[in-house]
Structure formats: structure tokens, C-alpha cells
Amino acid sequence: MPLNRRHFHALAGAAASAAALTPWLAAHAQAQAASSSSSLSALHEAAKKEGELTWYIVYLPSEDAELMSRTFTARYPGVKVNVVRTTAQVAFQRLNQDLKAKTANCDVFSSTDVAHYLDLKKRKLLTKYVPAASASMDKRLQNLDPDGYFHVASVAMIGLVYNTQKVKPADAPKSWNDLVDPKWRGLVSVGHPGFSGFVGVWAIEMRKLYGDGWFKKLAANKPQVGRSIIDTVTTVTSGERSIAAGPINLAATMADKGNPLAIAAPKEGPVLMLSPSAIMANAPHPNASKLFMEWLLGSEDVDKLSVERFGVPKRAGAKPRPGVLGLDDSKAALRPDPQESVDGVPEVIDLWRDAFGV
């Protein structure tokens, strides 16, 4: 269509408006950034008066949790993080003992079991706090709790893992259903949903994909069953088993150390594991806790540490290390919602024990 005088003036006016608007948008973004920085500075000052916080942490090994503690203090001098690292059920038991004794020890509670948070929220034992930093996370990780009492602090994925000395890439498993394929009979490793929360969530997704009878098919294929999901990577690394449903980050870490391991993304999607964090309602250091939650959810420091350890970064657009599945590589990732995780795990444990006898 030819450009007449009326069109020309309309376009010129639009261009002029856009040109006038662009500096305003830039200034608005700068103002928002300055406001956020000012808020964090004020929170840091308040946190320094408290001096410390205590972090009950489950989803990291002790050495990584201690490194996180030191990194936070380097970023926010004057605020120390006391790390208490245990397994999920031990941490929850300890927390409940604190609560029963009316002793406020824990400031920030970071577990791998979402049921803990639903229970604590129901009992009004969590602080409602939505960190501004949560807006920087991938949208799939936001609003884990629509009411704002707990938030995603760590992301992991369960995928298919195989031993490269025993399995050629062309023969690598491509589907979760390969775990019940007779050609892998006696060569599969899995965890137990009665002992591992991660395996419980994975089992929920297998049931949704294939139905209740799938677990009997799995049992008939004679897999090695360990308690922890970590055991699956150990047995495949040693060559005791050839393939497994295991944590991708651990497999990638072991492969980086020279072990004969590789990862395959199931065509149905990996299972996304979300580990929450929350501030306790009786937290003795509330400002330090809020500052820590801001850092835990949205800091480049945390994503950098995660990527270095072959983990999944949380911030929108952030990339993992090569060979590790990130959120942008896993648009079909499988994950139950929090209530589904709570309701579904006891049911899959019963199905599992009926199939395996243990």
C-alpha cells in the first residue's frame, strides 16, 4: 500500500511518541532497580542488628550448605548463617521438637518434602513473606504456594541415567517405560518411595503416565531397589546395573569426575523436583531471614553455585552447564502440585509394596 500524507503523519506521530516514551521506560526501570536496591540495603541494615540466622537445610550436602553460608555473609557482611544440615525427616522432627519445647531455634526451614510446609502452614507456624526476588525466577517456579508462605528455593530433575561402558548411545533408554522393557531385565536401578521423598514424587508421575499396574511390571523386571535415589547413580557408576531413574545433577557431577555415566531425557519429560524454603513464624531473626530468602531465591550467587555443581538455575533464562537439562530444555517436565504430592505418596508406597513385597 502506498504511503500517503495521512499515513506518513500518523507513523511520524507514533514514532515521536515511542521516542518520547523510551526514555521514560528506561527511567522507570532504573527507578525500580534503585528502589529494590534501597529496600535490600535497608533490610541488610536491619539484619545486621540481629547479626545472624539459623538455617535448617536438607536439599544440599553439608559442604555445599556451608559454602552457601559463607557466600551469603560475603555478600551481606555482618549477618552470619548458622547451618544445621540433616535429612528431611530428621529436620522436621527436630523442628517439631523445638516447637513443642517452645524453643525458637530455626529461622529459615529448607526441606525437600512439600508435605512439611502444608502441615506447618495449616498450623499457622510459617511467616507469610513473598520475596521481591521471586519475580526474577522462571515463571514455572513462582507461586508454589499461592498464599506466599513457602517458595521454591532449589530445583532438581530426575531423568534416565546409563553406564556408557555397558550401553551404547544408540541403545540408551528414551522413555520411562524402558524401565519395564524385558531387554533391561536385571539391569535397572531404582530408589524406594517409602524411604526417599524424591522417589515418591517420581512414582506419582509414573502412576499418572502408566497406571497402577506399572509397578508390578517394574518388579517383574527385577530391578535393584535402593533406599535413596542417590543409590541409583552409585550402582550404575559401578556397573552393577546399566540404567536407572536417577538425579541428573548427581549423574553429571559423577560423569565430570571421569565416571562412565551419561544422561538421557525421557520423551515424556524428566520429573521436576522442587524443594521449598520458608521463614518460621517464631523466627528469632526475622529481618535476617527475609534478607536470606531474598538472596536464596533471586541471587546470581546462588544460581552460580548451583550451575557449578551441575544443578538447575532458578532465574528466568539462566542456563545450566552443558549436558545438564535446564528448565528451558524441559518444557514437558513432569511435576505434581503440592497437595498431590502429599496425597499421592502414601498411595504409591502401598502400590510399590504390593508389587515388590517390601
Residue share in helix = 40-55%
Unreliable parts: 1-20, 24-35
Q: Average pLDDT across residues?
A: 88
Helices, by number, come to 11
Radius of gyration: 24 Å
Which word captures the global form?
Answer: globular
Structural class: alpha/beta
* C-alpha termini separation: 75 Å
Instruction: Give the SSE order as H and E letters.
Output: HEHEHEHEEHHEHEHEEHHH
Residue fraction in strands: 5-15%
Major sheet size, sense and barrel closure: 9 strands, mixed
In total, the number of strands is 9
What does this structure look like?
This protein is 45% helix and 14% strand. Strands 1, 2, 3, 4, 5, 6, 7, 8 and 9 form a nine-stranded mixed sheet that branches. It has 358 residues and is α/β, with parallel strands linked by helices. β1, α2 (62-75) and β2 form a beta-alpha-beta unit. The protein has eleven helices and nine strands.
List keywords for this structure.
11 helices, alpha/beta, single chain, 358 residues
Task: Sum this structure up briefly.
The chain is 45% helix and 14% strand.
Summarize the helices and strands and which ones pair or pack:
Blueprint: H1 5-50, E1 52-57, H2 62-75, E2 80-85, H3 88-100, E3 108-110, H4 114-122, E4 151-163, E5 188-190, H5 197-210, H6 214-220, E6 224-225, H7 230-238, E7 243-247, H8 248-256, E8 261-264, E9 271-279, H9 286-298, H10 300-308, H11 338-356
Helix pairs in contact: 1-9, 5-11, 6-11, 9-10
